[in-house]
Design goal:
The complex is a heterodimer of chains A (98) and B (511). Chain A has 3 helices and 2 strands, in the order αααββ. Chain A has 98 residues and is mainly α. Chain A has a domain of 40 residues: Orthogonal Bundle (Histone, subunit A), CATH 1.10.20. Chain A has a two-stranded antiparallel sheet with strand order 1-2. In chain A, a hairpin with a 2-residue loop joins strand 1 and strand 2. In chain A, helix 1 crosses helix 2. Chain B is 39% helix and 11% strand. Chain B is built from 17 helices and 11 strands. In chain B, helix 11 crosses helix 13. Chain B has one domain: Amidase signature (AS) domain (Amidase signature (AS) enzymes, Alpha-Beta Complex). Chain B is globular, with a radius of gyration of 22 Å. An 11-stranded mixed sheet of chain B has the order 1-3-2-4-6-5-10-11-9-7-8, sandwiched between helices. The chains are: A mainly alpha (98), B alpha/beta (511). Chains A and B meet through helix 1 and helix 2 of A and helix 11, helix 12, helix 13 and helix 14 of B. Chain A: InterPro entries: Asp/Glu-ADT_sf_sub_c (IPR036113), GatC (IPR003837). Chain A: Belongs to the GatC family. Chain A: Heterotrimer of A, B and C subunits. Chain A: It comes from Ornithinimicrobium pratense.
Chain lengths: 98, 511
């Protein structure tokens, strides 16, 4: 049922924030098309009246009192950052320049 | 007991080690050093450990020995060393999840399970190799090189927890921690001749464990015997307020079950007709089937009644799994944005945050991780969600219903754990679909959240390599796995003239 083209894979990779190189796109496109075709068999079985199950446990929201508790220090929180400056994470520009 | 040389100490079970420590026949420093010596000698051949913490392990061992000398009451496994899969955060010790993305990441906190190991006063020998972010069935997808199987260095040790299982099978550690999302504790256990347990979903805290697919992931023990696994299970289990999926109920009595009666009279053991069916015939190797049939004979001899049960939707479990896992993984791995932690690659031309993120993720993620993130992103994308992810979640309901019906007819279910013995390194690397088939028997349990165990059932006639049998029980009935596993383990030990792990050849030294 699927027909996952090279362009489709490039588009999805962009959504996933992975800048694939050309040779990766060529290889992945073929493999993903095969995998998507195979996983599509889930459409053969589940009827409309079957409720989806998202989780093996019946979950309820877990909350705790809103109290100040010990946490990581600023140094600990920044210790693994690729770039940090003046007690903050160092990030590239997020907004366009204009 | 004669434990005069350090070489002998590594051959003991964890139960025997704990007993030797309690009786003053060995010290934790001796035990820990014996394992460190063996790691130094054989880890270059196996690549089971990514990080070895000799100093930390010996410091814990010395503290335990001193406490014991003072007459302090100590936990049962105090002083028994352990290895931890590199997926669990260890404060101050590099944790990579087998990925370049986290190369050099030093967690500022311990995972809850690591805290429990520290409270149990178990020396942590180091961190074990794994498929990158636990995606794989062979440990060939580690960014830091494959782990090799102690039974044959040219073969895979299973995955994703191949490092933990190889360490236990090779006597580099008596116990190890694994994580099981689709079989990553049980399948490596099967192909290395060791015991691996996936507890009931929610039975062990996942706080501080690097997430793959949150509704499937479960932490559990790797060991050489069922009784050893039970001791570690009780250390790891229990409610954790830091994990909102943690079950708030007592840990099932697994140690009592593992050491209780060996009589299985009246137990109904279900064989699922559809497990292993690929839709095009059985996926199982003849030697795997043969050992499985012999295990059924042993179970009958122990008094169990074998019944055939049908789980008609299990044939769709693999397809549903390979939609649900990538979908959850694509979400969980979105946290690797090259900003707060993890690798960063900066393209040349005054890049934006988005470009840095995309370039970093291409550079630092391996092929299998990228394949699954893209598959998951596709399955969740507009226009495809209903056809793929939504349908997969319905199949999950059908599989959970199949289990419910099966557990009305049987107390436990059994199957071979893995379709084949350990295959050769490189054989399946170019064919993702062939690799995925390794998990065909283990995946249904993860989808439904039920507990599972693999124990060695013998060696395959055709290649002399270990084969595993899987036991499954209803949720929160983990003790049934241990009762059946311990009884079968003992029957097989007598019938086969020793445990499977005792028959492993000496490891060849390669550098």
């Amino acid at each position: 049922m699927s027909n996952l083209s090279r362009d489709d894979v490039a588009h999805v990779a962009m959504l996933a924030r992975i800048q694939l190189e050309d040779h990766e796109l060529d290889r992945l496109a073929g493999q993903l098309d095969q995998i998507v075709d195979w996983v599509g068999q889930v459409n053969e079985v589940a009827a409309d009246d079957v409720p989806p199950m998202s989780h093996p446990l019946p979950l309820v929201n877990v909350t705790r009192p809103d109290e100040v508790r010990p946490s990581l220090s600023q140094e600990e929180a920044l210790a693994n950052a690729p770039a940090a400056d003046d007690g903050r994470f160092g990030v590239p520009r997020i907004l366009d320049e204009e | 007991m004669t434990t005069t040389t350090t070489g002998d100490l590594t051959r003991l079970t964890a139960v025997q080690m704990a007993d030797a420590l309690a009786a003053g026949e060995a010290t934790s420093v001796q035990l820990t050093q014996a394992h460190l010596d063996r790691i130094e000698r054989y880890n270059p051949s196996l690549n089971a450990f990514l990080l070895i913490d000799a100093e930390g392990a010996l410091a814990t061992a010395r503290e335990v020995d001193e406490a014991r000398a003072r007459g302090e009451e100590l936990p049962r496994l105090a002083g028994v060393p352990i290895a931890v899969k590199d997926i669990a955060c260890t404060k101050g010790l590099t944790t990579t999840a087998g990925s370049r993305m986290l190369e050099g990441f030093v967690p500022p906190y311990d995972a809850t399970i690591v805290g429990k190991l520290r409270a149990a006063r178990m020396p942590i020998l180091g961190k074990t190799n794994m498929d990158e972010f636990a995606m794989g069935s062979s440990t060939e997808h580690s960014a830091f090189g494959p782990t090799r199987n102690p039974w044959d260095l040219d073969r895979i040790p299973g995955g994703s927890g191949g490092g933990s299982s190889a360490a236990v099978a090779g006597f580099l550690a008596p116990l190890a921690i694994g994580s099981d999302t689709g079989g990553s504790i049980r399948q490596p256990g099967a192909v290395t001749g060791t015991v691996g347990v996936k507890p009931t979903y929610g039975g062990v805290s996942r706080y501080g464990v690097i997430a793959l697919a949150s509704s499937l992931d479960q932490i559990g023990p790797c060991a050489r015997t069922v009784a050893d696994a039970a001791l570690l299970h009780e250390v790891l289990g229990g409610h954790d307020p830091l994990d909102s999926t943690s079950i708030d109920a007592p840990v099932p009595p697994v140690v009592a079950a593992a050491t209780g009666t060996r009589d299985l009279t009246g137990l109904r053991v279900g064989v699922v007709r559809e497990i292993g069916d690929t839709g095009e015939g059985s996926a199982f190797q003849p030697g795997v089937i043969q050992r499985f049939e012999e295990s059924l004979e042993q179970l009958r001899a122990l008094g169990a009644q074998i019944v055939e049960v049908s789980c008609p939707h299990f044939v769709y479990a693999m397809a549903a799994y390979y939609l649900i896992l990538p979908s959850e993984a694509s979400s969980n791995l979105a946290r690797y944005d090259a900003m707060r932690y993890g690798a960063r690659t900066t393209p040349d031309d005054s890049p934006s945050a988005e470009q840095v993120m995309a370039a970093s993720r291409d550079q630092a993620f391996g092929d299998e991780v990228k394949r699954r993130i893209i598959l998951g992103t596709y399955a969740l994308s507009s226009g495809y969600y209903d056809a793929y992810y939504g349908q997969a979640q319905k199949v999950r309901t059908l599989i959970a219903r199949d289990f419910e019906a099966a557990f009305e007819q049987a107390d436990v279910l059994v199957s071979p754990t893995a379709p084949t013995t350990a295959f050769r390194i490189g054989d399946k690397m170019q064919d993702p679909m062939a690799m995925y088939l390794n998990d065909i028997a283990t995946i249904p349990a993860n989808l439904a959240g039920v507990p599972g165990m693999s124990i060695p059932s013998g060696l395959a006639k055709e290649d002399g390599l270990p084969v595993g049998i899987q036991i499954l029980a209803p949720a929160m009935e983990d003790q049934r796995l241990y009762a059946v596993g311990a009884a079968l383990e003992e029957a097989l030990r007598v019938a086969q003239d020793g445990y499977v792990f005792e028959k492993a050849p000496e490891i060849e030294v390669r550098s």
